[in-house]
Design brief:
With 800 residues, this protein is an alpha+beta fold. 55% of the residues are buried.
Length: 800
């Protein structure tokens, strides 16, 4: 026979387990449709056949590369075969310190777009230099072409459709910037659907919208069969060091949707982002979503809706739940008022004492602090012993499940400990009141500060208030009938409902979020998960307090077992594997000033693999990649190749205001003139790479106080927002560098000594060192490089 006090706890735990199972089942990916699917539907296998044709050779195709040109030609051929008339758009453009010459592909459907609002479907066709980009973003390109086929056979939509395939997204959103700034169609586009990937698998998440998302979510909810989204995704996304083309579209006031899948993020921007690892189910889900939302936008009566935010989340990928953001604060305040009223009734009728509420608050806050601290401590130990990568790199591991369980168990362990310690002092209603009021206060605060994240605490506060209504009303009725000072005794189910209802509601809303938190944040997701689960576990504190001491001890023992077991398994398993490798980039550096050369190894773990250490006798302690760089690398001696250095010289037509005198030499030991003593100067310069490197960088010292950089282009100067390094230096990065070089102007204090680099996406010496890279390591992002460095002294001859 189960003791009466334990029944509520057992019921709650069983219900939460069922909710977890239901959540895992609900977010399974759809079955990909085959090549024999109806011509009017999206088929992942048709899209993957296109993907195989585009990037099946496994060759990276960054901006300006021959492989990129071949892919562009293949896309144009396919669009032309479908009856479109694709056009190319090219031109130099700058954004956030990066400049380049992207080549966009643009096609239209639905007649002339002159003076008509249009919608756009976008994907980028370039990859990073390290990998073939089959999922990022080749799968989206293939999906766009499959959708283009479907659209061509359908009736003409209400609004014209623009198909945009951008170049240079990986380098810095250059193609999207070029389109928005210079293409005539950009003025007609009012909404865009963008497809992206930050991994190679997983469901397609709609993680960003335009500013009129109250209207947009109405379209999304009615159009998408399997909605997976919530307004918290964008809050998390803004904390990540990632942008997509939709960032540019949104800045141009486009409405729309941004989709991405993020499973198997360990393969992201590596050679493992290949066709074999591209998930057909993910392609199917993303293609279905993109086609549905694009169609809904293209047939919408208006594309100029009112600006209005909403708070939204999906119910087990079956239904979208949304309300206006302006509703959240009043609802949170009403929930708080309801809970305060119920608390007053409980106090007045003697169901709870003020000191019990105080102890309940101590237990709730103590649970959150101790749980978060314990999980953070476990994570810190894992990083210290090298079993978890540092959080500033790729902080994912091949087998995260044991630590997932440990992070969840820590939240339960902290709840069990707090309830066992304070069960007699707080009791059921002391814990309930403290947890409910804390949730209500958080819902009010989040409604004001972060509306997108407000639905979790708001749902908990509303459920707590509604769940406690039967008990509080029952107390009032009992007192009225009894007309005595004795406290009425309520039935246990009525009391337990006050805790069970908010527990079920909050865990149902939380479990979908937790599934995608680790791919988004890496190991930081573990303490975040513990903290969030702790907030939800606060709903269990009343039930734990009402249970017998033996039940609480059993909860503590089971949670402790999973905590210790999960942590030990995490520390015992390999940090990397061939399927989930460490990111290790190798670079050959030649200093054109000193004639010295060296190898660099950049490792996510900041621990040099033994095979590499033996192959080139790397120094044991990493150092900055270059002066002012925040990236640490291991150094080793390398043979001299005497490569031609990059050139930074006066432009052929220097500024009439002040012409700099430029000399190329080693860095001077003397400091540049102070800002007060230095004169502001205008430098007109040409940057080129005699050895034909595709990328060049210039680093201006912090003391130069650079105020403006403008690239000379055929359409006029292209200015860029200044990019600052952690040292305060200013970085200018030119990708797809022409053989003749580029001209640009700089407004800065002088004189100054700048660092100039050019880099090519290759590695010399026949790859001997590359072969020493272990099987559980790969290159990533820019990949293995050859870099030539020199310094240039700039001396203005005239004041501004």
């Amino acid at each position: 026979m189960v003791p009466a006090g334990n029944r509520g706890l057992m019921f709650a735990l069983a219900g939460i387990a069922l909710l977890l199972i239901a959540s895992l089942a609900a977010y399974r990916l759809p079955t990909p449709l085959g090549t024999n699917a109806s011509p009017d539907t999206f088929s992942a296998h048709r899209a993957k056949a296109i993907l195989e044709d585009l990037v099946g050779d496994g060759i990276p195709h960054p901006i300006g590369s021959p492989a990129g040109a071949r892919m562009r030609e293949a896309i144009v051929r396919r669009l032309s075969a479908l009856g479109y008339a694709p056009q190319l758009q090219s031109g130099f453009v700058c954004r956030d310190g990066v400049c380049g010459n992207p080549v966009n592909i643009i096609a239209t459907l639905g007649g002339r777009t002159d003076d008509r609002d249009a919608v756009m479907l976008a994907a980028h066709y370039d990859s990073v230099p390290a990998g073939p980009g089959a999922s990022d973003d080749g799968a989206a390109v293939a999906s766009l072409l499959e959708i283009a086929r479907i659209l061509a056979a359908r009736p003409t939509p209400r609004h014209p459709i623009v198909l945009l395939l951008t170049d240079g997204e990986e380098a810095g959103l250059l193609g999207a910037t070029l389109f928005v700034q210079q293409h005539p169609l950009s003025k007609q586009v009012k909404a865009a659907v963008n497809m992206e990937a930050r991994g190679t698998s997983g469901p397609s998440l709609m993680f960003e919208t335009g500013t009129a998302n109250a209207w947009l979510m109405g379209l999304y909810g009615s159009a998408v069969a399997r909605p997976i989204t919530n307004s918290l995704y964008y809050v998390v996304y803004k904390q990540l060091p990632n942008d997509t083309d939709f960032t540019v579209f949104k800045a141009a006031a486009y409405q729309g949707f941004n989709f991405a899948f993020i499973g198997d993020v360990g393969r992201y921007h590596t050679p493992l982002d290949n066709v074999a690892n591209a998930s057909p189910s993910s392609i199917q889900h993303q293609g279905d979503n993109a086609l549905a939302t694009l169609t809904a936008l293209a047939n919408s009566p208006t594309l100029q809706p009112p600006i209005a935010e909403s708070v939204f989340f999906d119910g087990f990928a079956r239904r979208l739940i949304a309300w206006p953001a302006s509703f959240t604060l009043p609802a949170a305040l009403l929930s708080l008022v309801l809970l305060l009223a119920e608390t007053a009734i409980l106090l007045r009728l003697g169901a709870v004492a003020p000191r019990e509420i105080l102890w309940g608050g101590v237990g709730t806050i103590g649970m959150l602090v101790s749980g978060g601290a314990l999980c953070s401590g476990v994570l810190a130990v894992g990083v210290a012993v090298g079993r978890v990568p540092p959080m500033d790199g790729g902080s994912w591991i091949p087998q995260p499940l044991p630590m997932h369980l440990a992070a969840a168990a820590i939240a339960l362990l902290a709840a069990g400990g707090a309830s066992h310690w304070l069960a007699r002092r707080a009791g059921f209603w002391g814990f309930w009141t403290a947890a409910a009021l804390l949730g209500a206060v958080l819902s009010v605060a989040s409604a004001v500060v972060i509306p997108g994240a407000s639905f979790l605490p708001l749902l908990g506060a509303v459920a707590a208030g509604l769940g406690a209504l039967p008990a509080t009303l029952g107390l009032v009725r009992s007192r009225a009938r009894a007309r005595s000072a004795d406290v009425a005794v309520l039935s246990p189910p009525l009391v337990n409902l006050a805790a069970v209802l908010p527990a079920f509601v909050t865990f149902a809303a939380l479990f979908p979020l937790l599934q995608f938190l680790y791919p988004a944040l890496g190991s930081l997701a573990w303490p975040v998960s513990t903290l969030v689960l702790g907030l939800e576990a606060a709903t269990l504190l009343p039930l734990l307090a009402a249970a017998c001491g033996r039940a609480r001890r059993q909860v503590i023992a089971v949670a402790a077992l999973f905590t210790v077991g999960g942590a030990l398994l995490t520390f015992g398993l390999p940090t990397y594997s061939a399927d989930w490798p460490e990111r290790v980039n190798l670079e050959y550096w030649w200093d054109a000033d000193t004639g010295q050369s060296h190898y660099l190894a950049r490792c996510d773990s900041l621990r040099l693999p033994a095979a590499l250490a033996a192959a080139a006798h790397f120094d044991p302690v990493p150092r900055p990649r270059f002066a002012g760089s925040g990236s640490l690398s291991f150094y080793a001696a390398a043979p001299s190749l005497e490569l031609a250095g990059p050139e930074l010289e006066p432009a052929t037509q220097p500024s009439a205001v002040s012409q700099p005198a430029v000399s190329q030499s080693a860095v001077s030991q003397s400091e540049p003139a102070s800002p007060a003593a230095a004169s502001a100067a205008h430098y007109q310069l040409r940057l080129r790479s005699p050895r034909g490197a595709p990328e060049a960088l210039v680093v201006f010292p912090a003391s130069a106080h650079v105020s403006d950089i403008a690239l000379a282009t055929a359409s006029g100067p292209a200015r860029t927002q200044l990019a600052r390094l952690t040292s305060g230096a200013t970085l200018l990065d030119i990708v797809s560098l022409p053989a003749a070089g580029v001209e640009f102007s700089v407004d800065a204090a002088g004189p100054m000594t700048v660092q100039v680099f050019d880099q090519s996406y290759d590695f010399p010496q026949g790859g001997t060192l590359q072969r020493a890279r272990p099987p559980n390591a790969v290159s990533s992002q820019d990949g293995d490089l050859t870099v030539v460095h020199r310094t240039v002294s700039l001396h203005p001859t005239a004041d501004r």
